[in-house]
Amino acid sequence: MPSRLSSVQLRRCASFRRLTGVSASTFDRMVAQLCAPWEAAERRKAKSGRPWEVGGLEDHLLIMLLYYRCYVPQEFIGVF
After folding, report:
1. What pLDDT is stored for residue 16 in this prediction?
2. How many domains does the chain have?
3. Are 20 and 62 in contact, with CB atoms under 8 Å apart?
4. Is residue 16 part of a domain?
């Protein structure tokens, strides 16, 4: 099974900005600002529910940026 793409892998890529629309440093600042609200939302969950196929906050933010940058169908992004 192929490994899935993650924010850690893509951040090392020279074309990170072209793919996401933001620089790696801006991405890090976005993660830092979203960290507290993300953790609060995670604590508020009554139950875990269906597990996500995507990792934590950084991977979710990456998916959102790719979606808004390319505006491709979610099924296409799901392949990654």
Report:
1. 87
2. 1
3. yes
4. yes
Q: Fill in the amino acid letter for 36.
A: A
Domain span at residue 75 reads 7-42+53-79
Q: Taking a C-beta distance cutoff of 8 angstroms, is the pair 52, 59 a contact?
A: no
Residue 48 lies in a domain: no
d(CA 52, CA 13): 25
Contact 6, 55 (CB under 8 A): yes
Sign of CA dihedral 32, 33, 36, 38: negative
- List Cβ<8 Å contacts ≥24 apart for 74-80: 78/53, 80/4, 80/5
Please indicate, yes or no, if residue 15 is contained in any of the structural domains: yes
Low-confidence residues in the chain, pLDDT < 50: 1-2
Indicate whether 2 belongs to any domain: no
∠ CA(56), CA(77), CA(4), 5° rounding?
Answer: 55
